[in-house]
Design a protein that fits this description.
alpha/beta, Rossmann fold, seven-stranded mixed beta sheet, 7 strands, about 40% helix, disordered N terminus, disordered C terminus
Amino acid sequence: MAGKRSKSSTRWLQRQKKDYFVRQAQAGGQVSRAHFKLEQLDQRFKLIRPRSRVLELGAAPGGWTQYLEGKLARGFLIAVDPLPITAGQDTHVIEGHFGDPQVDAKIDDIVGQSPLDLVLSDMAPNMSGVRAIDQARSMDLADMVLSACARWLRPGGTLVLKAFQGEGLDGWVAARRQDFGKVTITKPKASRPDSREVFVVAIGYKPNIRERDAVGGLV
């Protein structure tokens, strides 16, 4: 006999049933509702072109991956996550944690001498429930993603980063205006209204050569 569901799991199931974008994903065959977040960001900022060379961090379960595969024709996609990713055969899937030396070496091998046009991150920390701790971890991830730009993003390239409203974000975004031509914080309609989730879209990368030389790649 199945045990009773907790109140929190019952609320989650009820929310899923009512969620417009969950229903749209189920009806349209999308992997997840995250598909619509990237679609809306792409429609606004024109992020992805057929020849784009893209690194996607935090790719599981594959909502963004599926959208990217539909947009890319002669570019390529590297999708990274420790969890399984639903991906097509042409996508370079790396199972592991971004920042691990073995994972970064695999990215290096695929990127080669042709830098990326776009770095996407949908990564989020494992939530502890303590807001200050979770926010600090989220900002640590943001710094890690910035290191990916320093290592692989071409001059003029674009960064899209999931972040959470809270301490440290405004200062981090302000600092990025030294690294990119234009930086915007936005919340697509597909993000839940009650979530602190936002996305940082930074366009026109201006690499800091001094920092690259000092660290040999990663900041």
